[in-house]
Specification:
Length: 618
């Protein structure tokens, strides 16, 4: 028990120091003033009790001019204390709001800085990390609202208890001691409930996320069409209500246990207060204390338990703060998810040898099955290589490895003979332009949507226009009222583009970057036939002097490449030009013929749609 109490106090001290450090760095003057006002507020109630005692003693002392002057002086002093009791909290509240804003800003900046250390994707693709982010965001909001405020309240009530204790001890030392000790059971009970609640919340984190997911499904604009089309509204609501008891019932059982246990602890506190009042009454009846002293003791008995109760609540809140602060500190100090060398090797000014993937094996963290199994191939500068294969064959995983979002489990990837693990990931990525299959649709202007491909030149209008021309996105700009200054996306009332138009924007974003390596993941998936043909016709020019990796389910698109690599179950089963693979008559040739037959059948109206789907790779 003692060890747990000491550990709990240590955790709380670290949390308070963490919060105080945040506040003092974000708003030093405001934080100091708040602490000073907290001490002032703590001294006001004892001072009012003491002035009341003096007034009663003065009234009992007699009459006279000096007597009246002293009473007037005490009345003015009491009025000033009443005014201070109103002004100090209001002033503290105003300053606290400003401190909170600044602390939130600083905390957000710390979170941004910590995510910079996560240079890969492993954490972001881990559900446990998503749970942690959800909790950290919640704790950060709570921490911001409670920063310094809890410390100020604790200081206020400590000053109040100390002052009242000094006043009461003038008559009997055990009086304040008894009142304070009677609150210990409440403190112990509160600490136990807090620990049980925290442990339960940890266990329920996954259930809460499932519950939140079902709730936000009905609000998600991207799901709204299918929810209404398929009549899923009632089904989503029903699933939400079915999952709700998984969160509510365990919490309800814990709250009932806490209620009955808390009643016993409260009974001890009531006995302590009752015994103190009985002692005061007995002393008064026996004439052992003066009227002013009786008033003073009654004031202590009324105010000290309240301050002690507030300290117990603050103790509980500080415990919650300690766990939240520890979680945030852990998140802010998390180590990089990929090893970054202290002295990374610099890449050559220009790609000359190309990229070599050598005997690469890879499996995702926590997985037992390898996604890639001994993959070896190369891409020379100016060469385009197409990668085809069914879903799950490992195509997207290869893109993540080439951009060093992950490191191979075994084997190596070389950029001009230099292992990517020896390089700074950011330098590697500056050399690579990628159009992901699930590319981002920023709620920014059209120009900014393209410019983020090379953020250092986001205001270079000529460069943005040149990139847009390469992907045919300049046609979109010409159709918009404000051209490249038109905001896109519905979240802020912008123009919503079609899927094909968004894909042109994503392609322009890739062309914005003067990269040596170009990776196109399904670059024509949403494009119409004419645009795809235009891209095909200009492909050699657009990829000139670049090492290009093209991933596509449309085998007509892969013909643009110099070489085609076929992946199956994480292994390369074919590698060659389109003509070479067609002559070999293996997997690629079979799939190409199926797609061609499906297209022909669809044109002839002979049920080709089903055949085309059957022929689709992935």
């Amino acid at each position: 028990m003692l060890e747990r109490i000491v550990t709990g106090m240590s955790d709380r001290v670290r949390a308070v120091l963490f919060c105080a450090s945040l506040a003092m760095k974000a708003a030093p003057r405001g934080s100091f003033v708040i602490l000073l006002l907290g001490a002032v507020q703590g001294a006001i109630s004892p001072a009012m009790v003491w002035v009341t005692k003096l007034v009663v003693d003065q009234l009992s002392a007699g009459t006279g001019q000096q007597w009246a002057g002293q009473l007037l002086f005490l009345a003015v002093g009491y009025a000033l204390l009443v005014a201070a009791s109103s002004v100090a909290p209001a002033l503290a509240s105003m300053i606290q709001g400003n401190v909170n804003d600044r602390v939130l800003h600083r905390l957000n900046m710390n979170v941004f800085e910590s995510t910079d250390r996560l240079v890969g994707l492993a954490r972001f693709e881990d559900p446990d990390h998503e749970n942690q982010i959800t909790r950290v965001r919640s704790e950060a909001s709570h921490l911001t609202r409670g920063v310094l405020f809890m410390v100020v309240r604790a200081l206020q009530h400590c000053v109040s208890i100390a002052s009242l204790g000094v006043l009461a001890s003038r008559l009997h030392i055990m009086l304040p001691v008894a009142l304070i000790i009677s609150h210990f059971p409440i403190a112990i009970h509160t600490e136990k409930v807090r620990k049980l609640t925290f442990d339960l919340e940890e266990r329920l984190a996954e259930e809460r996320r499932r519950l939140d997911y079902m709730f936000t499904m009905s609000l998600n604009p991207y799901l709204a069409k299918e929810i209404r089309l398929f009549g899923l509204k009632e089904w989503v609501t029903r699933r939400y209500l079915q999952q709700l008891p998984n969160v509510e019932e365990p919490l309800w059982r814990l709250r009932k246990r806490a209620l009955f246990a808390g009643m016993g602890a409260s009974a001890i506190r009531v006995l302590g207060i009752g015994a103190s009042l009985a002692w005061v009454i007995a002393q008064g009846l026996q004439g052992k204390i003066l009227a002013g002293d009786a008033i003073l003791i009654l004031g202590v008995v009324l105010h000290l338990p309240e301050s002690a109760s507030q300290l117990v609540r603050i103790w509980d809140e500080t415990g919650q703060l300690a766990q939240g602060a520890a979680r945030i500190q852990s998140f802010l100090s998390s180590a990089p998810d990929l090893p970054v060398p202290a002295h990374p090797r610099s890449l050559p000014p220009k790609l000359s040898q190309g990229i070599v993937v050598k005997d690469v094996w890879f499996r995702y963290p926590g997985a037992t099955k390898y996604t890639l199994k001994g993959v070896t191939f190369s891409i020379r500068p100016g060469e385009s290589v197409a990668l085809v294969g069914e879903n799950g064959a490992g195509k997207s995983t290869l893109v993540k490895l080439l951009t060093r979002m992950y490191d191979p489990t075994a084997g190596s990837i070389y950029y001009d003979g230099i292992d990517l693990r020896e390089c700074d990931p950011q330098e590697v990525r500056r050399r690579i332009a990628v159009v992901f299959q699930d590319f981002s649709r920023w709620s920014l202007t059209l120009g900014e949507n393209i410019g983020v491909g090379d953020v250092e030149h986001i205001n270079d209008h000529e460069r943005i226009v040149a990139a847009a021309r390469k992907s045919d996105a300049d046609r979109i700009a010409n159709q918009l009222a404000q051209g490249y200054n038109t905001r896109l996306g519905k979240p802020f009332g912008g123009v919503e583009l079609s899927g094909g138009e968004w894909q042109k924007v994503a392609l322009a974003r890739a062309f914005m970057r003067k990269a040596e390596v170009l990776i196109l993941d399904e670059p024509t998936a949403a494009l119409d036939v004419r645009t795809e043909y235009e891209l095909y016709r200009r492909f050699a020019k657009l990829t000139q002097d670049k090492a290009t990796l093209l991933i596509s389910h449309r085998l007509s698109t892969t013909r643009m490449a110099d070489r085609i690599i076929v992946l199956e179950d994480g292994r390369i089963i074919e590698d060659g030009s389109h003509d070479e693979l067609m002559r070999a008559g293996k997997r690629y040739a079979h799939l190409f013929k199926l797609q061609a037959e499906g297209y022909t059948s669809r044109k002839e109206g002979t049920g080709g749609a089903s055949k085309d789907r059957e022929a689709e790779i992935g």
